[in-house]
Amino acid sequence: xxxxxxxxxxxxxxxxxxxxxxxxxxxxxxxxxxxxxxxxxxxxxxxxxxxxxxxxxxxxxxxxxxxxxxxxxxxxxxxxxxxxxxxxxxxxxxxxxxxxxxxxxxxxxxxxxxxxxxxxxxxxxxxxxxxxxxxxxxxxxxxxxxxxxxxxxxxxxxxxxxxxxxxxxxxxxxxxxxxxxxxxxxxxxxxxxxxxxxxxxxxxxxxxxxxxxxxxxxxxxxxxxxxxxxxxxxxxxxxxxxxxxxxxxxxxxxxxxxxxxxxxxxxxxxxxxxxxxxxxxxx
Length: 283
What we know:
Layout: E1 20-21, E2 24-25, H1 34-40, H2 46-56, E3 63-67, H3 73-77, E4 84-89, H4 92-105, E5 109-113, E6 126-132, H5 140-148, E7 151-163, H6 173-182, H7 190-195, H8 199-204, E8 210-223, H9 224-232, H10 235-238, H11 245-257, E9 265-278
Parallel strand pairs: 3-4, 3-6, 4-5, 6-7
Antiparallel strand pairs: 1-2, 7-9, 8-9
């Protein structure tokens, strides 16, 4: 997900593994969070996938690759618009959850374990590569070079993120984010997620230097308990040295949301954003 003043980044799990292991930055950070991530993170507006698919010119014969697929949110969103969808993630727990969802829903998605930097050479070709909430964890320049060999002429990359417009319905969001930030003071990934170049700068230095944005704004009603699970889904706040942080976080999130809740529900207005990058020569 691109750096944004309204976006919440993910941090690493604590533990003995090094910052980079087997090519994965902060490996295992979501190993304990796959189910919580699936249940807590907001899905993108369904219309956004349709808009991106139309922009990309996806046809019934085209293939889509979803990198850093996690529990498969974007992979499932694009099933109606492509001949095949492949989801890739280095975290086995995320892939297990994604496959469970595919089996339960009957969605035809092929999930494979790999880092984005080490994609199999025989994978593809693809008309569209989607990445949601994961690009900042990758060696972005290396991945873009790799994708240049996997994406067909006229194809491109879509980076997805969500934001929260400053509307009365979103009055709860600033204090909610502040609570998460208080619980992420010691996040060792913070210098990486806050100090890197914006995605746009990296894309301008790649083969995919023609950039456009599409966004869809959607009003929703979300339960307080779903927002508690969403808070817990951020590895940067879930893992703590004393093991008590999840309990404190749950209490503080519930207390902070109560002034904005009605019958246990919160009004939220979410903007789903897709930054689309294509080769200039293909436009």
